[in-house]
Automatic annotation (TrEMBL):
Protein's name in the database: SPOR domain-containing protein
Name of one Pfam family that matches: SPOR
Disordered as annotated region, ranges: 54-78
Organism of origin: Dyella acidisoli
Record-annotated SPOR domain positions: 130-196
InterPro entries hit by this protein: SPOR-like_dom
Length: 240
């Protein structure tokens, strides 16, 4: 009888302990659903957004605000180029001369060297007037030329000469003149005496020297301050 009572009490005690464990510790089991030190499992929807996503979103906003200035960047970049072109040194190719001698050319070349990018010297042949010759028309022979000379003497005309050799052989010369006005005066005197007179320009081929150059800055190139010969001029020429 006692054993049966103890058995019943043990069963009742087990039932009570089981009920307390099942019902009395619900909060503890709910609070500690995982073992200590083990991270809790979460749904993907519960996780916070990654840091890279936040950074990309933050950088997207400034880029959107700076889109407008960047669109004007080409115009700003072109501004220095435009100002550079406006301030660029201008140049033209020009020629100075003619110089009478190579020494004159050398002096000018030395004087202008600091203001010139490039220079070259050149020589040309030109025809210059040596003077004016007043004379009678050529005679067919020397005897006819002497006869004309005697006629001039008979009219009191002096200062004549019979050319006996060369290209102007058998011509009566009445004078050489550098000034054309004096040559015309002499011609008119002989014409007034009744003779046919010719007035011929005498020329010769002589060298002349030129200096072609490219100034560093044509707008501020004052070659007159360094080359003081009034006979020297300038004109534009083809670049070299």
């Amino acid at each position: 009888m006692v054993l049966r009572l103890l058995f019943v009490l043990l069963i009742a005690l087990n039932i009570a302990v089981g009920a307390w464990l099942l019902l009395g510790q619900t909060d503890t089991h709910a609070r500690f659903s995982t073992d200590p030190g083990v991270p809790k499992l979460r749904l993907l929807s519960e996780l916070p957004p990654p840091a890279t996503t936040v950074a990309q979103a933050a950088s997207a906003a400034p880029s959107a605000t700076t889109a407008t200035p960047s669109s004007t960047a080409p115009a700003t970049a072109n501004a220095p180029a435009a100002s550079t072109n406006a301030n660029a040194l201008s140049y033209t190719c020009m020629a100075l001369g003619p110089f009478a001698t190579q020494e004159d050319l050398r002096i000018a070349r030395t004087a202008l060297g600091a203001q010139v990018q490039r220079m070259r010297a050149r020589q040309e042949q030109t025809t210059q007037t040596r003077g004016w010759w007043v004379h009678l028309p050529p005679s067919p022979n020397h005897a006819a030329a002497l006869a004309q000379a005697r006629q001039l003497g008979a009219r009191n005309i002096q200062d004549y000469f019979v050319v006996s050799a060369g290209d102007n052989q058998n011509t009566v010369s009445l004078g050489l003149f550098k000034d054309p006005a004096n040559a015309r005066k002499r011609r008119d005197e002989i014409v007034a005496a009744g003779f046919q007179v010719q007035m011929t320009e005498r020329t010769e081929t002589v060298p002349e020297y030129w200096l072609d150059l490219i100034p560093t800055d044509s707008k501020h190139f004052d070659w007159r301050s360094r080359v003081h010969d009034p006979a020297i001029g300038s004109h534009s020429t083809g670049c070299f």
